Amino acid sequence: MTQVCYEKWFGKGTVAFGKRTCHTEVPKTGMLWTVFLRWHYQEPAAEMAPVAKVGGLADVISGLGKALQKKGHLVEIILPKYDCMQVDQVSNLKVLDVLVQSYFEGNMFNNKIWTGTVEGLPVYFIEPQHPAMFFSRAQYYGEHDDFKRFAYFSRAALELLYQSGKKVDIIHCHDWQTAFVAPLYWDVYANLGFNSARICFTCHNFEYQGTAPARDLAWCGLDVEHLDRPDRMRDNSHGRINAVKGAIVYSNIVTTVSPTYALEVRSEGGRGLQDTLKVHSRKFLGILNGIDTDTWNPSTDRYLKVQYNAKDLQGKAANKAALREQLNLASAYPSQPLVGCITRLVAQKGVHLIRHAIYKTAELGGQFVLLGSSPVPEIQREFEGIADHFQNNNNIRLILKYDDALSHCIYAASDMFIVPSIFEPCGLTQMIAMRYGSVPIVRKTGGLNDSVFDFDDETIPMEVRNGFTFVKADEQGLSSAM
């Protein structure tokens, strides 16, 4: 899991990290001294499963937090209090009897602070008392003022930590939405004496970088003249400022979500930031994400018709039969292969290859179930047309929305699972599919290359081979793997 690798960089035992020597407890056990380091992590983020989920970031925030917590660390999450979040997924939600004031656009604004527990993790929710009602919207992202919304949130999150007096070891920010935390911490809060922590920044996808006119940095109190420079936050290709670039420059350590993706972003995959990554290469590394094996566990999964494990796969056949009945799929031939696909329908995910896989499966006499939707109207309409085309075919089903409970059932029922991404920083669905006994068929890119190893590749030990892969992002490559 990811946190094991962090110990390599942040240290075990009494270790000086930068100017900070972290706290230790040293219990004596017989003739040996055991050093146990308990870190205090703060994780400001835009998503967290299952309370505020758009994509894989949400799963990583909750999964990593739980894994670190199991190792004895103190982990606290900070989220915006979205009107659209799943409040029923928060235990003991209550508003604190405090008001945290934070700076924005030349004024001080109050913020209500809520607390609760999500997946066993303590979470702070920030509700801005700002006339723009930044998080009282019908969606998490996609608003015209997203840059302003998350610049505000980043400043408010740091103000919460500063005013609380918490002794924090690591502030771990994620993606462009909380990338502002890094320059704000060192240029504003360190000067106020809040300088005990070190900053870790993880970019989960370099496709999204948070760019805006340089003047917009002043909203949250950053010095535009100081930061609008090529070696700081000025965007490398658009003449604007770039939030992700600022986090790369200002963080103590920068990670991305797989070793292969870390190599890819040093060239064209960096989407203009490859030169910045080269300059800061000594503090940049790729760590393969993992999944939450408690949430994704077929032997305890409450959504399944029959629970099962690797030693007894009869339950998988029962779940396949149950999904066929639920979706009104043909069930005369139990051995008829079922291909699953759970994804956002965007260009990155290889929508043309997903379309091909649907038709190819129908041609070969298999069954195909797609669960996912697209934020791009043209792509959504295209797949609605495909769904209409197959509406009378009892071997093909397209469910063009996200349904968490149904996703568990598809993982459990599918014999094969396709992930034909054009690029994929890490990918979690292929890992979940394998956890549920479904064979992944993936394109060799990013984290897919680091987690799926072709069954026919004789250069790889047999015990490591776990799926089928293809290289070229074309229909012929996918067909050969299928």
TrEMBL record:
Keywords: Amyloplast, Chloroplast, Glycosyltransferase, Plastid, Starch biosynthesis, Transferase, Transit peptide. It comes from the Eukaryota. The keyword Repeat does not apply. GO terms for molecular function: alpha-1,4-glucan glucosyltransferase (ADP-glucose donor) activity; alpha-1,4-glucan glucosyltransferase (UDP-glucose donor) activity. Pathway: Glycan biosynthesis; starch biosynthesis. GO terms for cellular component: amyloplast; chloroplast. PANTHER family: PTHR46083, STARCH SYNTHASE 4, CHLOROPLASTIC_AMYLOPLASTIC-RELATED. HAMAP family: Glycogen_synth. Belongs to the glycosyltransferase 1 family. Bacterial/plant glycogen synthase subfamily. This is Starch synthase, chloroplastic/amyloplastic. It comes from Aegilops tauschii subsp. strangulata.
